[in-house]
Amino acid sequence: MLRSVILAASRSSRVERLVETAPYTRDVVRRFVAGTSTADVLGVTRKLVAGGLAVTIDFLGEDTVNPDQAIATRDGYLALLAALAEAGQTPAAEVSVKLSALGQKFDEELAYECARAICAAAAEAGTTVTLDMEDHTTTDSTLDVLAKLRDEYPSTGAVLQAYLRRTESDCRELATAGSRVRLCKGAYREPESVAYQSAQDVNKSYVRCMNILMSGSGYPMLATHDPRLIAIGEDRARWFDRGADEFEFQMLYGIRPEEQARLSAEGHTVRVYLPYGTDWYGYLMRRLAERPANLMFFARALTSK
Ligand code: FDA
């Protein structure tokens, strides 16, 4: 119930204005978002990489409604990749891209062309791209774009969401040599017809999908903060004899940083998903919806002096 309310608030421009203008919002946002400028994200990247972590950077922007916005997002990524290469932060830093920010909802071809330019710039910079996954109405389109991008840039990765009933089958399709798959639980509100609803069913699906990816010949990226799933991931890595360059754990910036450090100290590759940009509102609200306990933290910061 609370999760639905927060997800509804994530689409309300009135609540957005309220949050943006509240005192001390900046401190709360900074817990989950690297900042608003390329300089900000480079600074945080340097610190994380120096601490033994890898990163994937998300230039925030969603639901682009016209081609100019799509082009501006593409150009933001091109500038970011140039800055990362110049700062010597690749290949430890890669980028994550939402096709909706590149115009997917109104022009799939435009989104593909923009993503292709980003993949080309990433290859030039010595790194790669992973396509984020959004609500289930975009899954087929995103996987179609992925297939086209992989023809030219085979290391382009994709996200699959364990809460979708279709995902086991998508994992089977993508557990092939050279394929990079980021497995997460899924962050959107989805109907029962397409998605498991209970935490237990989602977790069971995550384990089935993880088994397929870890036993396959692709490169699994286990994106979760869930202690039980991480423990199962460590177990499967031992069982399938996967070393630090054969799979990785991934977590969001600001969430369980001590666990990120522990896994890294144990020799695992750990990549932190690092969002930045002025368009942080929808991202932040999804993080709050995942864990309503964060609301207390947020409310305290909003109301405190
Ligand atoms: P779960 O939500 O059960 O959390 C397990 C534990 O982790 C909690 O008990 C708590 O300790 C901690 N935790 C989790 N979320 C927290 C939070 N917000 N604040 C504080 N603690 C928290 N989704 C999607 O639909 N499309 C996508 O493309 C992506 N991409 C993506 C990339 C990466 C690298 C990650 C880690 C996640 C995503 N996600 C995503 C989000 C994902 O679907 C999911 O919503 C979150 O990761 C939360 O699920 P967990 O697996 O962490 O488990």
Topology, pairings included?
Blueprint: H1 2-9, H2 13-21, H3 25-32, H4 38-50, E1 54-59, H5 67-86, E2 93-97, H6 108-125, E3 129-131, H7 139-152, E4 157-161, H8 167-174, E5 180-184, H9 199-215, E6 219-223, H10 227-239, E7 248-252, H11 257-265, E8 270-276, H12 281-290, H13 293-303
Helix pairs in contact: 1-12, 5-6, 6-7, 8-9, 9-10
The protein binds dihydroflavine-adenine dinucleotide (FDA).
Cofactor: FAD
Organism: Micromonospora sonneratiae
EC number: 1.5.5.2
Summary, kept brief:
The protein has 305 residues and is of the alpha/beta class. It is built from 13 helices and eight strands.
Notes on the structure:
- This is proline dehydrogenase.
- Its cofactor is FAD.
- Keywords: FAD, Flavoprotein, Nucleotide-binding, Oxidoreductase, Proline metabolism.
- It catalyses: L-proline + a quinone = (S)-1-pyrroline-5-carboxylate + a quinol + H(+).
- This protein has 305 residues and is an alpha/beta fold.
- The chain has 2 domains: 1-32 and 285-305, no CATH class; 34-279, TIM Barrel.
- It is 52% helix and 13% strand.
- It contains 13 helices and 8 strands.
- The protein has helices at 2-9, 13-21, 25-32, 38-50, 67-86, 108-125, 139-152, 167-174, 199-215, 227-239, 257-265, 281-290, 293-303; strands at 54-59, 93-97, 129-131, 157-161, 180-184, 219-223, 248-252, 270-276.
- Strand 5, helix 9 (199-215) and strand 6 form a beta-alpha-beta unit.
- Helix 1 runs antiparallel to helix 12, helix 5 packs parallel to helix 6 (108-125) and helix 6 crosses helix 7 (139-152).
- The mean pLDDT is 91.
- Dihydroflavine-adenine dinucleotide binds next to strand 4, strand 5, strand 7 and helix 12.
